């Protein structure tokens, strides 16, 4: 870049008091109003954090080393940065901001670090878990829109741990996906499959995030749950999970994912389910009706809430491509 072609502030005699405004100035030459806004607020909050805490060089270096170690432990099947985002409550916060839900729809929650893109497509009624030690579970679900109309052809990613509390990717001898699948809702918006009853489990605690939790004197456990992710053109992307009522970690989830509307009670199959779905007597039963929001409705709600939230902070904004930027006109 030719410096003569870019207006750059004179970066000399920088102090605690003027460093922030100068960093913001030199970052503001980029043409994207949204990127410019994000960097302005990021620098402002980072610098204010350092000033407010009087951050020491050793503490700053400890933070750098922690983030370096977090990146070094990441692999194709383990995303330690997502785990860090989860235990800080950031993942849930961003999902709630970016995917607001009207009261009539299914709430979202955290994706977690163990979703993969290699799950097998399964037909309705098939078994997604082959753990012989797991307690059998029949899952009967529907997916509809907010008016109650069925949504056919929705893609549904589903995943859970085995009976030992580990996802398939946590086993060194993993040969193929297990405890996960992809399904499509039928013409009536139904989908059903066989699985095992979810169990509580610890999030990976052998890395930097686990060390941080220990330092904070927090436990690393998640309550029993099963993940679901819904995709279909015209509908807002939904990442959610169902949690078993009465789990010992129901009110202290290490990643803050539990919401009251997502807590369920398991039943037991009756004669009708035994005959229709070919399951054994005593099999546990999970039934749930998922409700998706239209893409346009979600976009409108997101824009409204963004403007309301930022106006409360005293910031005038306008919406550009669905996202808020400062309104300087």
From TrEMBL:
Classification via Gene3D superfamilies: Aromatic compound dioxygenase (2.60.130.10)
Keywords in UniProt for this one? Dioxygenase, Iron, Metal-binding, Oxidoreductase
| Signal peptide start-end | none
List the CDD domains hit by this protein, alphabetically: 1_2-HQD (cd03461)
The molecular function GO annotations come to: catechol 1,2-dioxygenase activity; ferric iron binding
Query: InterPro entries given for it?
Result: 1_2-HQD/HQD (IPR039390), Catechol_dOase_N (IPR007535), Intradiol_dOase_C (IPR000627), Intradiol_dOase_core (IPR015889), Intradiol_RC_Dioxygenase (IPR050770)
Q: Which GO terms describe its biological process?
A: catechol-containing compound metabolic process
Entry annotated with the keyword Metal-binding: yes
Query: What are the Catechol dioxygenase N-terminal domain coordinates in residue numbering?
Result: 33-104
Obligatory cofactor(s): Fe(3+)
What's the short name of a Pfam family annotated to this entry? Answer: Dioxygenase_C
Where the record annotates domain Intradiol ring-cleavage dioxygenases, the positions are 127-293
Q: Which family does it belong to?
A: Belongs to the intradiol ring-cleavage dioxygenase family.
- PANTHER family hit by this protein: DIOXYGENASE, PUTATIVE (AFU_ORTHOLOGUE AFUA_2G02910)-RELATED (PTHR33711), INTRADIOL RING-CLEAVAGE DIOXYGENASES DOMAIN-CONTAINING PROTEIN-RELATED (PTHR33711:SF7)
Entry protein name: Intradiol ring-cleavage dioxygenases domain-containing protein
Write down the species: Cyphellophora europaea (strain CBS 101466) (Phialophora europaea)
């Amino acid at each position: 870049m030719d410096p003569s072609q870019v207006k750059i502030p004179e970066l000399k005699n920088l102090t605690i008091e003027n460093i922030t405004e100068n960093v913001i100035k030199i970052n503001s030459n980029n043409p994207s109003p949204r990127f410019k806004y994000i960097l302005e607020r990021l620098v402002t909050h980072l610098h204010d954090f350092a000033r407010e805490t009087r951050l020491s060089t050793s503490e700053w270096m400890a933070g750098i080393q922690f983030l370096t170690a977090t990146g070094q432990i990441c692999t194709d099947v383990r995303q330690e940065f997502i785990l860090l985002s989860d235990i800080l409550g950031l993942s849930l916060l961003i999902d709630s901001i970016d995917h607001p839900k009207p009261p009539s729809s299914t709430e979202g929650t955290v994706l977690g670090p163990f979703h993969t893109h290699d799950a097998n497509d399964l037909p309705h009624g098939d078994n997604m878990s082959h753990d012989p030690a797991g307690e059998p579970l029949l899952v009967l679900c529907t997916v509809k829109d907010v008016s109650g109309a069925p949504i056919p052809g929705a893609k549904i990613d589903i995943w859970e741990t085995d009976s030992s509390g580990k996802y398939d990717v946590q086993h060194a001898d993993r040969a193929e996906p297990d405890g996960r699948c992809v399904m499509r809702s039928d013409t009536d918006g139904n989908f059903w499959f066989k699985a095992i009853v979810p169990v509580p489990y610890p999030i990976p605690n052998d890395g930097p995030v686990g060390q941080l939790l220990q330092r904070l004197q927090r436990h690393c456990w998640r309550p029993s749950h099963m993940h679901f992710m819904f995709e279909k053109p015209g509908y807002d992307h939904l990442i959610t999970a169902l949690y078993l009522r009465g789990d010992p970690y129901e009110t202290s989830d290490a990643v803050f994912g539990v919401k009251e509307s997502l807590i369920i009670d398991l039943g037991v199959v009756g004669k009708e389910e035994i005959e229709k779905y070919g399951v054994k007597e005593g099999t546990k039963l999970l039934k749930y009706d998922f409700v998706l929001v239209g893409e346009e409705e979600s976009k409108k709600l997101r824009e409204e809430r963004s403007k309301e939230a930022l106006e409360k902070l005293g910031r005038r904004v306008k919406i550009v491509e669905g996202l808020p930027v400062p309104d300087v006109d």
